[in-house]
Request: fold
Amino acid sequence: MSRLAERYIVLLMLFAGAAAVTAFAPFGWFPVAILSLAILFNQWLLDTPGLAFRHGFLFGAGFFGAGISWVFISIKVYGNVAAPVATFITLGLIAFLSLYPALLGYFLLRYFRSLAFASLLVALPAGWAISEWLRGWVFSGFPWLTMGTSQIDGPLGGYAPLLGVFGTSLTVALSAALLVAVIRGWYRLPGVVLLLLLWGGGQLLNNVHWTEPRGDALQVALVQGNISQDDKWAPENLLSTFTRYSELTFAETDVDLVVWPETAIPAFFDQVEDSFIAYLETELANNDISLLTGIPVLEKQNWEYFNAIISLGGEQGFYYKQHLVPYGEYLPLRWLIGNTLDALAVPNADFSSGGASQTLLQAAGYPVSSSICYEVVFGEQIIRDLPDAAMLVNISNDAWFGDSLAPHQHLQMARLRAKETGRPMLRATNTGITAIIDHRGAIVEQSRQFEIAVVKAAVLPMQGATPYVKTGNTPVVLFSIGCLFLCGLVCRRKAG
Reply:
């Protein structure tokens, strides 16, 4: 291969990866995900294992480099970390995530190259699904920009309640493989027919109602305080924060449930229990309102800190965040590296993780599934609370992301959780995007970013279970592993 041709391929892989980001929010050009993967898959068919690794890495660098560049903003601007350190961390994360498509390309070309057409239609989609699933849990997981998420508004989104996000990613990868097969002239007519069946089946599934109403609609209000990250934790702003959220809440009439964002109360529970919490309980009782709000909790028995949600105006309870953000809420392997990162001024708070089997919070007479910020990207965590929960509630402080792609991507993942579970999602954030999402993943009402807002709508609690709620990711993972295993057997027979 000439140097000019290789340079062209390098640019093509970077471009294909970066272009795939436009399939996600806020752009929403969902077919681009399939086109981008088709470009990658087509190149892999021409590669050696070593080149497949290189080209997969370049695709990942373009994809994650364009898609999660907001990490730099979180670390540099709001984490107050020096620019060189923030750059190093951001590039390190991008490089690590790029290893997933790189290693997948190497693995497929190393072991399944002799399969030709069969490898394209079986091994590539199955391998892609397994790769994304691994990215979702290895080293605590980072399932951001999972291809299935990009299909929330497309025909393939119909597979989400059936197969979950990784199963939807499998359909995206299969579509890309079929597209390559059609373009290359391999069984063109069967390929077109399979594409039409795949997409038509997804569209039909979009019309299936997997769950049903559970009682009457609730009038819900989500409060977006829009308090800047710089002001949020300043002690002198505590009273004004309390006043803003209280006034916005009790100005509403005929409301059953109000939700405030993550750490909307910027003080430990025990510090405000006898003052602000007591005041809230009285006012909520007078107005017959339930409230869910974020608040940090210090348990003095063991001196453990928790990022929590508290339910007020009824049966008081707490939810403690389970899936903490590495380096943001805890320092991984602290026992091994000690305070090494302190010298680099990398901020970390030693929050403790809540248990996996917590009692569901009660709000306006219904059990709710609670998640805080980053937790909403983990589908299997959300379904642990189902089918008992009637609604999903996610509170977040997306001020950390600034004016970047991240708040839009975060909201899109919350929408997919609603569609996977057949439950409405109430998503309250500090600076936006606050949104009420119905049980099919559609936005009912939403706020603008960086404005004080109250988002209101009628919300139907739901009951029942989608297939994904019943089975989780297990069927898709086992199916994909089985496909790779069968491809491996065929390769062995050919070699023999």
User: Anything to note?
Assistant: Confidence is low (pLDDT under 50) at residues 333-348.
